[in-house]
Design a protein that fits this description.
This protein is an alpha/beta fold and 322 residues long. It is built from 10 helices and 12 strands. Strand 7, helix 7 and strand 8 form a beta-alpha-beta unit.
Length: 322
């Protein structure tokens, strides 16, 4: 067993299109222990999904490219791994729960067959009866009666479809789940149920998880560590307890995210926002990528800040902490 389940070092990912090169992830470093939960937070376009896809080695072929850096998953070098090795790892060592259950499921296969397919792929020696039993078990675990396994995705509600997607992701008991905004397509009550279910199963199966979300409240409830991404970079990283206790003393972007959370006791007529937009991802910037939106920016910010440890295990990439 490797020391860490996942170790990403100095990872840079580009999308090479005919029009331009998009620098989607820039020098990202992260690590995750066995059984640990990490919340990956940031606005759309920050590079969260691209990071997850790179761990699965599912970047769009011919367009997405790991330009530099390394990803080690359970001791396997993902950047160098061949497709055969990746087929072995996907589903068995690492699984992904996608945002939209409608597009993640095959509309012309019964849900039972879709769960069974993953088992067959990774356990060719299992008998039909054993596979059938495991499918029934998994369906019950996600709260769907096993006798509904003969039905098709269109016969289920949105929340139930997402439960099936979770069942497919967990049926081989992977060491790592990448949950990419697993509740975004669901309404608020179902969201809470789904997060509760993912958390319960994760604890029961001792699976590590990277939870991609926009919602700091969800991170506080579900995760042990949090990484905040901005414009393809990780700008703050550490235990949830340290980051949530440091409000008022964080990276200016993370502070902006906290300030944007609606407060029930506030009389303000407008919600707080972070002014400005993320930088153009096709431009390679020299200094701090947040500088155009930061009210603390100085001349020093024209040079790129480095990660600094501000308290035990809590790292911030900002010149304010030099
Ligand atoms: Fe703001 Fe400068 Fe810190 Fe960037 S490095 S977040 S511009 S203070």
């Amino acid at each position: 067993m490797a020391d860490k389940l996942l170790e990403i070092k100095d990872l840079s990912i580009n999308y090479n299109t005919e029009m331009a090169t998009v620098y989607a992830v820039n020098g990202l470093s992260l690590s995750l222990d066995y059984g640990e939960t990490l919340g990956l937070v940031g606005e759309t376009g920050a590079g969260k999904t691209t990071t997850c896809l790179s761990v699965m080695k599912l970047l769009p072929e011919g367009v997405g490219e790991i330009a530099s850096g390394s990803i080690e998953l359970d001791g396997v070098d993902i950047v160098k791994a061949h497709e055969d090795k990746m087929r072995e790892l996907r589903g068995h060592t690492v699984s992904m729960i996608f945002q939209d259950p409608m597009s993640a499921l095959n509309p012309v296969m019964t849900v039972g067959d879709q769960i069974a397919e993953v088992l067959h792929e990774h356990n060719p020696n299992m008998t039909r009866e054993e596979v059938g039993k495991a499918v029934d078990n998994m369906m019950e675990m996600v709260g769907i009666p096993a006798n509904r396994k003969v039905e098709y995705p269109h016969q289920f509600s949105g929340g139930m479809k997402q439960r099936i997607v979770i069942a497919i992701a967990l049926v081989c008991r992977p060491k790592l789940i990448l949950a990419d905004e697993p509740t975004t397509a669901l309404d608020v009550t179902i969201q809470a149920q789904m997060l509760g279910l993912i958390h319960e199963l994760q604890v029961e199966l001792n699976t590590a998880m990277i939870l991609v979300t926009h919602d700091l409240g969800v991170v506080a409830q579900t995760c042990e560590k949090v990484a905040v991404m901005y414009a393809g970079e990780c700008i703050e990283y550490g235990p949830c307890s340290a980051i949530f206790d440091s409000v008022g003393n964080l990276h200016p972007y993370t502070q902006g995210l906290f300030d944007a959370i609606p407060k029930l006791d506030s009389k303000a007529r407008r919600l707080e926002t972070i002014d400005g937009m993320m930088p153009d991802p096709t431009e390679k910037l020299q200094g701090c990528r947040f500088a155009d939106r930061c009210k603390h920016a100085t001349d020093k910010c024209k040079t790129a800040p480095q990660m600094k440890e501000v308290s035990e295990g809590h790292f911030v990439k900002c010149h304010l902490y030099d």
